[in-house]
Amino acid sequence: MNKKVKVYGLPTCPVCRRTKKYLEDEGIDYEYLDVSANHDFAKEMIVKSGQKTVPVVEIGGEIIIGFDKAKIEELLKR
């Protein structure tokens, strides 16, 4: 089952870049949402996560705050 993966982030955020690199290295398709370029993305991220910090990763409707490799792998395997 392919789950939709979204990464809410900022271009200047090193943890966001690390998250995207990990997903790319693993061949995982994801949608990157730059919260600095689109305020609707920022609002959506805050509503979904309750957080104003990035990155926020959404996998199959579940939220991960920050880069958590084990949690990403767990959600992708479910």
Task: Summarize it.
By secondary structure, this protein is an alpha+beta fold. It has helices at 14-25, 39-49, 69-77, and strands at 5-9, 31-34, 56-59, 62-65.
- What form results from the Cα inertia axes? globular
User: So what's the CATH class?
Assistant: Alpha Beta
**Structural class by SSE content:** alpha+beta
Q: pLDDT under 50 segments (min length 5)?
A: none
The number of domains is 1
Q: Name the CATH architecture.
A: 3-Layer(aba) Sandwich
What is the H/E order? EHEHEEH
Q: How many helices does DSSP assign?
A: 3
Tell me the β content: 15-25%
**Helical coverage, percent range:** 40-55%
Architecture overview:
There is one protein chain. This protein is an alpha+beta fold and 78 residues long. It has one domain: Glutaredoxin. It is built from three helices and four strands; from the N terminus they run βαβαββα. It has a four-stranded mixed beta sheet with strand order 2-1-3-4, sandwiched between helices. α1 links the parallel β1 and β2. The longest helix has 12 residues. The chain is globular. The relative contact order is 0.24.
